[in-house]
Structures are given as C-alpha cells and as structure tokens.
Amino acid sequence: MTNADKGESIIDHIMEFIKTHTNIVLTNVLIRYDLSYYSLENKRIRSFNKKLMEITKEHKQVALIEIDIDRKYHTRHGLHLIS
Fold this sequence. Notes:
The protein is mostly helical. The chain has one domain (3-73). The chain has helices at 3-20, 40-58, and strands at 24-27, 62-65. The protein has a two-stranded parallel sheet with strand order 1-2. Helix 2 (40-58) links the parallel strand 1 (24-27) and strand 2 (62-65). The longest helix has 19 residues, at 40-58. The protein is globular, with a radius of gyration of 14 Å.
C-alpha cells in the first residue's frame, strides 16, 4: 500500500466513524521540516489536511484543530518536536 493509498484509507475510516459518532475533534498533520516544502511527502500532507478541512465543512459535528507550528519548535533535523 502506498502512502497515498494510506491517506485515502484513513479518510475512509474517518468518514465511517462520523456516521456513528458525534462531537468529533480532528487535528491536521504537521509539515515535515526535514524535507523540502515541495517534497512529495509534504504535498501529500497538505492534500490530506485539505481533505480534513473539507470534511469539517461538510459535517457540523466535526471540528478541526489546525496546528501550525513554526520550524523553531522542531529539533535540528526538523522531524520531531522539541519537548
């Protein structure tokens, strides 16, 4: 299964979950600073986050917490958050 397929699978699971639950809170996926902004992985992350936003617009019982953390809050290599 490719990363793109995994993203679609997760969206499918979220849509199924929405059918049977109320008051759902989702968070977006953080961009990877260890990769170029234009890398395929970051493009997929931005696409996935866009789909999450669309879901929240279509379903009133779903809220999205948009996390936009600056590069300075990540470790030197850019993949992990500083604790």
